[in-house]
């Protein structure tokens, strides 16, 4: 069997089944970040992301934006857990023929985001490679009462999303702001039952929440906020790299959240968590309902 036949997430599950964890691990594979024992009041969060030239960015993209994206992806993961990013290591594979100016600008982009979000860059590694490869590992922390996993969605929760989705390939995937401030506001003021960032596509990532929570969902086409760059609804919910937050909240507090929301970032109700049903029901603009699969971007 080839990896492309197995698929990315089946491969991840295959690895996960073979790993035995110690009691120091609260949550391992299967969320935006690992959750580790830390102090009496806080957990440690640990995440990593890899970007590869030709897959996540192109050789003619601005180096500073590529560097910024490489760290922002990780910060988005920490935000989706309700946490605060703290320390990062950055490893890069670079061709020996690469212009030094590009390499300098790449690190300037990383440094700019690190300063903005108060992340310390504490190390890494460099190797020679045929294509540019950037891997960042990021440590964060979260108060125990604010930890938010994918697995906590409850029946009748309202599903929210920040911002707009779709068309990220038209520059936005290199120029986005991790929703860190929004996530911290949410976990400090509400009991957010589940949360994830949209990296693989709305359907795929909301699908992770449904799988981990053993729930279903009904979402409404007319309330899902599309970017002006989106190629259409069906594409927008599958394309990925929007880096918005999808989260679920008890219906009881939904109106209060909308009234309190202090950000210019758009906030939209897009559906509801269902008990006893797995997968998605999509309510089209025509009011017709259909079952859809949680498809999105996969690496193989």
Give a description of the structure.
By secondary structure, this protein is α+β, with helices and mostly antiparallel strands. It has 2 domains: 3-145, 2-Layer Sandwich (60s Ribosomal Protein L30, Chain: A); 149-292, Alpha-Beta Complex (Phosphoribosyl-aminoimidazole Synthetase, Chain A, domain 2). It is built from 8 helices and 13 strands. It has helices spanning 3-6, 8-18, 63-80, 100-116, 180-189, 202-213, 233-239, 254-260, and strands at 25-27, 34-37, 42-52, 84-94, 120-128, 133-143, 158-162, 192-197, 216-220, 245-249, 267-274, 279-283, 289-292. A hairpin with a 6-residue loop joins strand 1 (25-27) and strand 2. Helix 3 runs parallel beside helix 4 and helix 3 (63-80) runs parallel beside helix 5 (180-189). The chain is globular. The mean pLDDT is 93.
SSE blueprint and pairings:
Elements: H1 3-6, H2 8-18, E1 25-27, E2 34-37, E3 42-52, H3 63-80, E4 84-94, H4 100-116, E5 120-128, E6 133-143, E7 158-162, H5 180-189, E8 192-197, H6 202-213, E9 216-220, H7 233-239, E10 245-249, H8 254-260, E11 267-274, E12 279-283, E13 289-292
Parallel strand pairs: 4-5, 9-12
Antiparallel strand pairs: 1-2, 2-3, 3-6, 4-6, 7-10, 7-11, 8-10, 9-11, 12-13
Do you know the CATH topology of the largest domain? Phosphoribosyl-aminoimidazole Synthetase, Chain A, domain 2
Distance between the termini: 13 Å
Low-pLDDT runs = none
Q: Name the CATH homologous superfamily of the largest domain.
A: PurM-like C-terminal domain
Structural class of the helices, strands and pairings? alpha+beta
Query: Radius of gyration over alpha carbons?
Result: 19 Å
Task: Note the main sheet.
Answer: 7 strands, mixed
Mean pLDDT across all amino acids: 93
- CATH class category of the largest domain: Alpha Beta
Strand content: 25-35%
SSE sequence, one letter per element:
HHEEEHEHEEEHEHEHEHEEE
